[in-house]
Amino acid sequence: MRKYLLKRLTFMVLVLLGVSIITFVVSHVVPGSPAAMWVGPKPTQEQLDAAIKELGLDQPLWVQYFSYIGNMVQGDLGVSLRTHQKVSEELSRRWGATFELVTISMLIALVLGIPIGILSATKKDKPFDHVSRGLSISGVAMPVFWLGMILQMVFHGTLGWLPLQGRVDSTVLIDHPIEKISGFYLFDSMITGNWPIFLSTISHLVLPAFCLSFAALAVVTRMSRSSMLEVLREDYIQTSIAYGVSQRLVLFRYALKNALIPTLTVVSISYGVMLGGSFLVESIFDWPGLGRYAILSIETNDFPAIMGVTILFALTFVILNLLVDLIYFLIDPRIKTPGE
Amino acid sequence: MKKSILMLILAILLSLPATLLAAGGSKDTIVYAAYADIKDWDPSVAASMEVVMLSSVYETLTVYDTYGAKNVKPGLATSWSTSDDGLIWTFNLRKGVKFHDGTPFNASTVKYSIERTKKMKKGTSYILGAIGKLSVVDSYTVQVHLKNPAPMDIILSSQYAAYIFSPTAATRGTEWFMQGNAAGTGPYMVDSWEKSQQTVLKKNDNYWGGWNKKHFKRVVIKVVLEKSTQVQMIKSGEADFASLAPVDSLPALRKSPGVEVLTPKSWKNSSFLINTKKFPTNNLKIRKALQYAWDYSAVVKSIYNGLATVAEGPVPKNIWGHNPNLPKVDFNLEKAKQLIAESGIPKSQLKLSMAYIATSQEYENCAQLLQANLSRIGVQLELKGGPWGTIWKNAKNVETAPNLQSMTWWPSYPTPNDWLVGLFRTEEKAVFNLSHYSNKKVDALIDEGVKMEGVDRDASIAAYQKAQQMIVDDAPAIFYADLSARIVKRKSIMGYKNDPAYGIFFYKLYRQ
Amino acid sequence: MEENINSKSQMGGRFHYTWHLIKRNPMFIAGLVVVILLVFAALFAPYITPYPEDAGFGINFSEKLKEPSAEHLFGADALGRDIFTRVVFGARMTLKICMTVITISLLIGVPLGLIAGFEGGWIDEVIMRITDMFLAFPALLLPIAIAAALGASIMNAMIAIAISWFPWYVRLVRAQVLTVKEELYVESARSIGVSRRVIIFRHIFPNVLSPIVIQASMDMGYTILAAASLSFMGLGAKPPTVEWGLMITTARAYYLDFWWTVTFPGLAIFVSVLAFNLVGDGLRDILDPKIRD
Predict the structure, then answer these.
(1) Distance in angstroms (rounded) separating the CA atoms of residues B57 and B189
(2) Which of C146, C245, C262 has the CB atom closest to A149's CB atom?
(3) What domains can be seen in chain C, in order of their start residue?
(4) Are the beta carbons of C177 and C114 closer than 8 angstroms?
(5) Which domain holds residue B283?
(6) Would you call A313 an interface residue with chain C, using a CB distance cutoff of 8 Å?
């Protein structure tokens, strides 16, 4: 086990290094003018030259890379060319926004998906099943940015039920400032009893979270349904039911446990998909998170920000995979960890 | 059980709009939807949209008044005079003014501020280039010593690089400012900065201008990056100003109850610079042909939806020094075709490229329109939209530059030389002269105009007007639009008076 | 050898069974019909649309942003161009994207997978590590990075997507090769001395073909979504290309007032992806022997 962990950790570091090199080269090779971004709209040639020196752009690429890595291990990720703020500070601030969004989306996918899937399996081929299967199939086919726009048009434009964008209402924010404990508005506002913020956050989360969760919801539903169907076919289940054990007990005891492992797989894959989807959803909903930050950085070729956000994403993803694999092992030691 | 919980949640959510989708409309607070967060908080450095905050938090010695009898009004200075040779300007300062941190405003604070900005060399500090040093005569008199004559009264009214700030604060350095701090003399102080979300200003109770009229107590500068969202917010009243309502939403906004769309004159203009050194646009007839292939009225009416007027030459029509007698060019495909034939360049070589900022709908639509029109006269146009950083880098180098380059320009202080120097004066290493245009006679006229600006205004104007004529004859650009300011606001907001030299002063506004 | 005995009746039986499977799967048929419609639309676009010039230089300001009506089924965009026409023409780009991406992915992925699986040893290790590195990037990130690096254009976007997707084919092919490698008859063929190349083509390739076809058809949908997403972010198609993702992002500034400018292109994307997914699922049901039994 320990050997396995060590191997995985080494691999993780290698992957991150690889990612950092690729991203560094890519962001520096792209034709652009980072110095231009740094100095502002109407610079003079002297200001441009000074900026190039200040940003270290006159050094050879490998020197720049190593000084970047050197700074990174000390926690200094540089300063964003676009906002002039420290990248590390921006990442930590925006991470909370994205993480909250993605977690709520994941919860929606699981909390709605699993029951619907299981119910679908028990009502196989009835109308409920057809509708849920239809949604499943649609969910993975839908372009997430289009879904977001449609949701906005319907729920804000036509019905006026939900807010258009942002994390929280600005007037509410001024009158009831949030005490930053974790960076997750829901958590922070609950702990401090800041109910106006709590409610405002929920109403602002509904559309973006639902939009982001839709594809995962589809997959979770489908997978719960199929694993439920498989389980229902098992002999020992049939036997238990024949013997009169309540269907509900059967479902709970056996079916759910067996559904857990594939669910975990779906969760880990979906998390990765959602991180990618967050780029698009955060743009549409003006959500001040990492996805939005990544797109703004790419659009402006803000290479310190691009490096920071890419490495953070890669790190999150890799750690996530590791955690999931460890959980597999914990749940079912029968699963051989590779290398044993 | 599950169903009832779902019902409960739904009920809460549906009741939220009433309580929390707070439409603005408060007499105390005004909401401005900004298209970006504030980037540079240091008043010596800022050169971009942060002016929306800076102009309410900091002040300048003088204030430009485009439509007034006298162009320059008192600000933090009550009066001023020049020496005979124009090299020493004396400013008499307003008494009884304090900075937000309590430091008193006086001559040494003015000296500190201006010299700091000049020394840091950031942003548009080059407008202070003529200054040698400042000297304190007494607490309320400061002198500006120039290396060569320059219109200091106009220069120090600029909304960039001319702010006066508290030395006590500024010695803490740019990092202090960047945390969202400010120390000016203006009517508003910075209350809070929620990064990437909003900046809140609150009224400065000790403001020397007083609070005896109707004023806002709070200004919320909200970051709304999505333009379509800005439009919805202005319609619903959630925002009182939309900074960047898209051009194509203007007709709908004009009809929207409660919304007012103003398009007053500004000093921004757009042109497509034509590469004078790259084949085939190095041929004068081809350049002139391009000017005739541009559909000026369609662009202004249907692409800009009335947000622009047709330009006349390199300098906007409404700034002093504009030459009103420049020859006019209009949309004439026949003439364009004729000029192409006269150029002697065969059709197979009529392949041009055009670069523009891809995120601008206006540029993109103009580009596609030109492409369509050029195809009708046998010229192929390749579109190269991209981010500014990339296209600028390519444009600076003649080999990688396109034949046509989008350019929007505005002056750093009220003067026509900004366009002439910035865009058309010879540059060994191109910065913004992306036509790679070089005409020594024009250079001489521009230099003459600059020299005379602070001394003999009429001579200066004459030189600038001659320069404009020569530039137009050389056709280094398609001069197509004088842009209007885009003021999209709620009808209930009163007190807005446009001046092309500035943006919005929240202090002057109130809600009906 | 054994394959020739009773081949005719076996073939007939197999065909019949396959046909039966197809008939039983209405979703597959529905998807197939839509895909055929898509191809039809792409091929005959100029003849079935009311304003074919609007897919090119047909700028017409008097029609600007008109609502859907009899003249403009899907309304008009900011340059007065008919959206229905442009959606139909967009099918061309959609199909081109699918074909190009899958082809490039296969061209890179299949040979690498074959080599990795067949050679084994350190070559296999190296190829697998590189593949893992590519797979470590969360879903859209790598295509975005590559597209940003190469510069925004639909061709570069296609290359970017292909580069991020080929590792899956490497893995797929390698797994198949490994399975097949253990089959006895390969061993016996080798022992007889049949050349490696023959083994690959005769035995491994046909077995690998089926999973590749299934995977590729399921991937078509993802490819369309990825390309549309890249165009939406400004990293893909550029004007005046007619591409559905680009049409949506162009209208991003004003869609809340002009709903038709994004609804119909988005619908086209959705329906196409759905169709390809259904076809892919259906093919898997039909072709995959594991499920059949």
Answers:
(1) 6
(2) C262
(3) 2-56+74-287 (1.10.3720.10)
(4) yes
(5) 265-484
(6) yes
